[in-house]
Amino acid sequence: MSDTPYDDDTSEQKAVRLAKRERLIAEAADAAGGAYPVAVPVTRTIPSVREEFTGLEPGEESGVVVGLAGRVVFQRNTGKLCFASLQSGDGSRIQAMVSLAAVGEESLQRWKELVDLGDHVFVSGEIVASRRGELSVMVAEWSIAAKSLLPLPTLHNELSEESRVRQRYLDLIVREQARENVRARAAVMASLRGTFAGHDYLEVETPMLQVQHGGAAARPFVTHSNAFDTELYLRIAPELYLKRAVVGGIDRVFEINRNFRNEGADSTHSPEFAMVEAYQAYGDYRQMADLTQELIQNAALAVAGSHVVTLVDGTEYDFGGEWDRISMYDSLNEARAAREAAAGRSAPAVITPQTPAEELAVIAEAEGIQVTHPTHGKYVEELWEHLVIDSLTRPTFVMDFPVDTSPLTRDHRSIPGVVEKWDLYVRGFELATAYSELVDPVIQRERFVAQARLASAGDDEAMRVDEEFLRALEHGMPPSGGMGMGIDRLMMALTGLGVRETILFPLVK
Asked: Aminoacyl-transfer RNA synthetases class-II family profile domain: which residues (predicted)?
């Protein structure tokens, strides 16, 4: 038995159900029967029966006999007739009518004594419409398919968010939105793969356990391999391995993967999360923006049938049309100038990629912004988030980032001090990022060394020098564009849900 604590009422119900389980086992004619038979003779599903026979008139008989199974989510027992609602995994329901005339006194009495809410039962009988017009099975035979030892939550009372997360199986049983979330995510995953296939991308798998973490600025989870007697890291990003694939000649490659970052958890972050990364030889960050817009718009069509999606709060969000592409530095300066003008003050000094970090520190302090391990780039990005992000209402690509915060990114082809990188912002949060990839192994080594200095200074998110990756680059990587997008965040953008609702079984304490 489980060590899970129960309240007195639940413990009493469990004891009663355990006694019924013992009775079912004792009365079973063979080992395949009892409370948990190995199989039941199902011939149809509840959804398929509903689709075929929904048009029956009240009191009409179909003449078709089926074998169905489902979970009992409602029942009402009377003297000579018992009613139960059976629910399938997708939430479809059908009524089972167990009558004295059809099953006999002994079978009817066993139903009353043994069947509880939450049980899986098998019923065989004719499909009919009740006198009230409800699609039903007039039961001729029945059996327990799986005995439930614990009661279901009250269906008309909403589960708390904590209960939904910790006991997602109950959430799926009682709440249609939970089931719809799973279906929507599956549709999005299929859509992503379909869009990639349409552009001749190949899907691959890269290691989750790595001897060196890299591919993103993030704090890793650390574990130990007994077989190799070495410290290993859970993957924070697949980037460095996918680039190896491009070096090897897989010109268009993507992976839908699980990543792990040993960082804070909140409404938009989870320590374990899913993302998609893609790389295209002879592409750049502009082409990756085109691809990303197509991926997301196709995902919206898969979920909502339209580029305009309806969020859980009832509001609508439009993913249609061409999305804006704005400069990080230009939009930051415009926001600062607009605020000063509104206050009747003169325009502030323009922030450029050459503005010293010391000057940015003064501006950040005046804004009440604190930056850990400060650099020019970190100040600029924090100021941009503070002053600009709330003004973005439509999906927007924020282009051209500071060089020191993007060590894997190619320098901009015409603007000194920035790199060819964009972040995509949707509904106030970052959804995706892309680069024109840095493929020069000499410059990449310099960037890794600079990151290593930050790491030695205490920056847990800084990258280390990855000699194996540098060796791959030294064999020649073609000019390439790369993109990464969080799947959980994509679901948040399409549905309006929090991150824990988009993940089927999120990590909880």
From this structure: 198-506
pLDDT at 462 over 90: no
17 burial type by CB count under 10 A (0-12 exposed, 13-18 middle, 19+ buried): buried
What is the pLDDT, as a whole number, of residue 18?
96
Please give the tally of structural domains in the chain: 2
Domain range for 242: 177-323+394-502
Q: Verify that 487 and 400 share a domain, yes or no.
A: yes
> What Cα–Cα distance (Å) separates residue 235 from each residue in 53, 213, 216?
51, 6, 10
User: Quick one: 126 and 184 in the same domain?
Assistant: no
Its pTM stands at: 0.88
Tell me: the pLDDT tens digits for 183-198?
Answer: 999 999 999 999 999 9
Cα torsion angle, 137, 139, 140, 144, sign: positive
Q: What is the DSSP letter of 408?
A: T
Question: d(Cα 10, Cα 23) in Å, to the nearest integer?
Answer: 20
Same domain, 17 and 99: yes
Determine if residue 460 is labeled as part of a ligand binding site: no
Is position 411 annotated in a ligand binding site?
A: no
Q: Which of 437, 97, 443 is closest to 283 using CA atoms? A: 437
